Amino acid sequence: MSPRWRSSSWASGWASTVRGSVTVICSTASPPPSPSWRRPRRIELGTAVIPLGWENPLRLAEDLATVDLMSGGRLNPGVSVGPPMHYDRVKGALYPDTADAEEFGYERARRLLDFVRGERATEFSGNEGFEATRRQPHIESSSDRVQPQSAGLGSRMWYGGGSLSSARWAGEHGMSFLTSSVVKAEGPEDAADFAEIQLSHIRTFRAHHPDGDSARVSQGLVVVPTDSATPEQRAKYETYAAQRLPRTASPQGPARLMFAPDIVGSSDEIAERLHAHAAFREVDEVAFALPFTFEHEDYVQILTDMAEKLGPALGWQSAS
After folding, report:
1. Binning pLDDT at 50, 70 and 90, where does residue 43 land?
2. Angle between helix 194-207 and 164-172 (nearest 10)
3. pLDDT exceeding 90 applies to what percent of the chain?
4. Most buried in the list 80, 106, 122, 284, measured by CB within 10 Å?
5. What are the sequence ranges of the domains in the chain?
6. Pick the CATH number of 161-311 from 3.60.20.10, 3.90.1210.10, 1.10.274.10, 3.20.20.30
């Protein structure tokens, strides 16, 4: 999110902002600790999501805790597992000595959780070097846990999942769950209804989470309100959604991925469609995604309409 978008978000009274991974080769591990991220005191900051295949869990735990402390405990990191995209092409640069031994499944996420939550990373802790005096401090002081540690960050870790197994794993490990506009159709061919699949993931997650029905779930969809859009903007948004609509008709590829249709229209129209969505009715939080290819003026219009029109239509009120 650019500084100009952030200024619009603050002025509109947004409660949170989520940064997606949009780089060409790999994701940035954590939000940059710049003054623009530290300036607001109320907006929560999120990442949706960090692909852990690109990351060292121990170093990522350090980065996330550092940013969380700098932001006053407002970071909500989202992660996912799986091999990096185009792994055969990049593995030599990414893991030149260990490419064939790297583990990209849930174990990688578990390691990150353990480090963030203060589990021991090594058997050693203490001081090395000369005996400490006022004039001669220890050369090295080591902790058996990742440093820094940020209290509460472990309870604000999110898992971005699109399958029943991911939903169950996230629940069993006490994470929050981000379910997005892509899910896996794992049932019979004639049961590929996106909303019902997403609903089953949410219920599976909560059924295995210690907090049960109060466990945090955020639904991520592409939503574009047009209340204050110009005719040209409205036409652009409708064309964008129409071009992506065919992929939503049936499961795609060997993995049988289901895509949610983009929702474009007035805030009242969008609110009506969302209230009719089985999975939306199950959640208290949403992460509306912005298309990557629009212009700055488009994003300002969309964010403003979300805060001033769509949010209130869905029952949200600004805390500012």
Report:
1. confident
2. 20
3. 72
4. 80
5. 1-121+143-156, 161-311
6. 3.20.20.30
